[in-house]
Design goal:
flat, RNaseH-like_sf, about 280 residues, about 60% helix, mainly alpha, 14 helices
Length: about 280
């Protein structure tokens, strides 16, 4: 039929990113699906003749795409619970903005929904608008419950040189070290070009209290990304042709690709070969 795509996508729970992509493919092929169903299953084709139902599918396609983008931004090796909490907090603020725009009949942030309403010159019924706003409200509440904002007093870890000391969770005596740190111009320049975890490791000797407190916040796993990466690596290494392989040494090397070996310590523990 000259379509951009030749088939639909199968949704599986294991591959959670497929949900949004599946809906998007259905929405992009809505005309082709309607023609196919009119020949095979006329009752199902009625859904694709219902403009309100198609508008709802367009909205769900858009919101799942945004959730996919959020999920992907939360993955990666160099991340921590503070950064992830900030990203989810920003997403919740966007949801509040989207609710206000939907109530004003502005669908610009939802590409599929906006395109469908403009192409077909339709105005969403109040019932559909109310359902969309209710869905967004529930989504925001669910995110706030699942990921509560507990980072208000810990922002100094992310922005140690520009934070407000009044928000720091420390007693008066402990706040002296952050003041000293904020006045340390050499560390300020290093902070701009250094990974957050590595920066706080560098402060161990001079600012032991800040070092200990910051690492307790940065060390916990922020997501299951590293575990999933290790599992994917394991399945690639230990195939059915290597089922008896002792995978531990190979797996350790594979998942430690971003860790530089400490050559001095390794060589110090081995006796050098003397001359004969």
């Amino acid at each position: 039929m000259g379509s951009e795509y030749e088939n639909l996508l199968l949704h599986t729970e294991v591959r959670w990113l497929s949900r949004g992509k599946t809906l998007r493919r259905v929405f992009d092929l809505k005309d082709e699906i309607r023609i196919f169903l009119l020949e095979r299953e006329p009752k199902l084709a009625e859904y694709f003749l219902n403009e309100n139902w198609l508008a709802t599918v367009g909205y769900h396609s858009d919101i799942f795409e945004k959730l996919n983008d959020l999920n992907q931004s939360l993955q990666g090796k160099s991340t921590n619970v503070l950064i992830l909490a900030n990203k989810i907090k920003a997403f919740c603020r966007k949801i509040s903005l989207w609710i206000d725009e939907i109530s004003a009949e502005n669908y610009e942030m939802f590409a599929c929904l906006e395109k469908f309403s403009e192409e077909n010159n339709i105005k969403l019924e109040e019932e559909i608008k109310t359902k969309i706003m209710m869905h967004l409200t529930n989504l925001k509440q669910d995110l706030e419950i699942r990921v509560p904002d507990t980072s208000h007093g810990d922002q100094w870890i992310i922005i140690p040189f520009t934070c407000d000391l009044n928000t720091v969770k420390m007693n008066l005596k402990e706040k002296e070290q952050p003041i000293d740190l904020m006045s340390d111009e050499s560390l300020r320049s290093i902070f701009k070009t250094t990974d957050l975890s590595k920066f706080w490791i560098m402060t161990e000797k001079e600012y032991p209290l800040l070092f200990k407190t910051s690492l307790l916040k940065l060390l916990p796993f922020a997501s299951t990304y590293l575990c999933e990466t290790a599992f994917s690596t394991l399945t690639a290494i230990k195939t059915k042709y290597r089922s008896r392989l002792n995978v531990e040494p190979d797996l350790r090397v594979s998942v430690s690709d971003n860790i530089s070996p400490r050559i001095n310590i390794l060589t110090a523990s081995v006796q050098a070969q003397g001359s004969h």
